[in-house]
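User: Show me sequence and structure for the first protein, then do the same for the second.

Assistant: Starting with the first protein.
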Amino acid sequence: MRNAARSLLCLSALLVPLILAACAPAPIYKPTPHAVVATPQQVAQSPERFAGGDVIWGGRIVQVMNLADHSEVELLAYPLDSSQRPKANDSGSGRFVAVLPGYAEPLDYPTGALMTVSGKLDGSRAGKVGQADYVFPLVTTAQSHVWTTEELNKGRNNVRFGLGVGVGIH
């Protein structure tokens, strides 16, 4: 009986991570063979090296600017998880500007929301963050997605391990 319990415990230890991983949503954009594997901060240091490369980047919306024939969304970049959701609890990896065709309703792109974009690197632009000079990589956006709270929490386990006794409600 003791060996059966140990076998069941070992099997459970192997299956729980697989089950939790299976709950995570699939990536929303398919990476291309020409995908740039660099952060916006790295691209800003030598934008000509990455020109025309495909990216899937995400981050927190800083501001939306509507211009005559397009819109620009400035983002503070974060690494993406396996579902391409920005990991906002991680450290930022630079800023970039997502260039969108037409008019972007600012209410659809609220400041502070998390967003993922897929597109091509199209140079850079000098600007400022506060009083500091900054180089913003420009991404001509093919697709973009602003994440809802429900989507950000989907597939994340609410299982907590710890020592002691207690009840948690999330």
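Switching to the second protein now.
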Amino acid sequence: MAYIMVDIESDGPIPGDFSMISFGAVLVDEQLDKTFYGTLKPISDKFIPEALAVSEFSREEVLVFDDPKQVMINFKAWIEETCQSRPIFISDNNGFDWMFICWYFHHFLGENPFGHSSYNLGSLYKGLVKDTFKTFKHLRKTTHTHNPVDDAQGNAEALLILKSDYGLKIRF
């Protein structure tokens, strides 16, 4: 299996009514050198200024981002080129990140190359340390900047540490 760590930025809480404006993905392996970055033009006139501000993009900037369908076509092609086996979606907050990626794949391409399931990095960590109040975020090496590639990179680094230092049985 090929684990793809994903992070997204949006201008609101749900896909369809609001837009995914950028996302990053990293193939989880020892090198962490295979990445994807997409910026997507909004699909809706609705946006929440505070949500958009997290990404540090203005509404004017995102309005000239790339066509969402083409970005999803490019992402699917990257997944197919990068993964030698079944791609597995994993993220820090898969309830949020998965919701957008899954919706965009199905809406624009009619399919999702990740299938119907995803993994949550935080839940993996909580299970390993047997404490639902603990967070893995101290394991990141790359600073969490809200640039989705940086954030996916830091989360991928944490997953590698879960394997090497915490005994997580996982194959990349």
